[in-house]
Queue: 2 jobs
Job 1
Amino acid sequence: MKFSLSWLKYYLETDATIEQVADCLNRIGLEVEGSKTPPTSWRVSALQRY
């Protein structure tokens, strides 16, 4: 299952980094295979469309 860190932080109400969140998820038995951050140019393009 894939989800964004912003989506998760909405429900967790935390300021943890992606590494800290991944570590916690792994400790409770939810395997995190990896994480990636889209280039900032993608974010700007998505915002400009709307």
Job 2
Amino acid sequence: MTDFGGHTLLVRVLLLATVYLLIRREYRLAAYVVVTALGALILDPTLKLLVGRLRPIVDVPVAAAPGHSFPAIMPSALS
């Protein structure tokens, strides 16, 4: 399995983007990136916990993942 799209890579990309924006003196846009990223990192596990949706059971699992499932992960990860 790959870590592409995981929290570590996401944090690194957002950190690089924030530093780039700060170098360009785009303070408001850098603040927006930080606030939306932190919001997504907080909102995603919170919503998973509140919804409590179990992961689907399939005959031949491709991979296993811990925790609850939440079908709308991509929009929050992309914000």
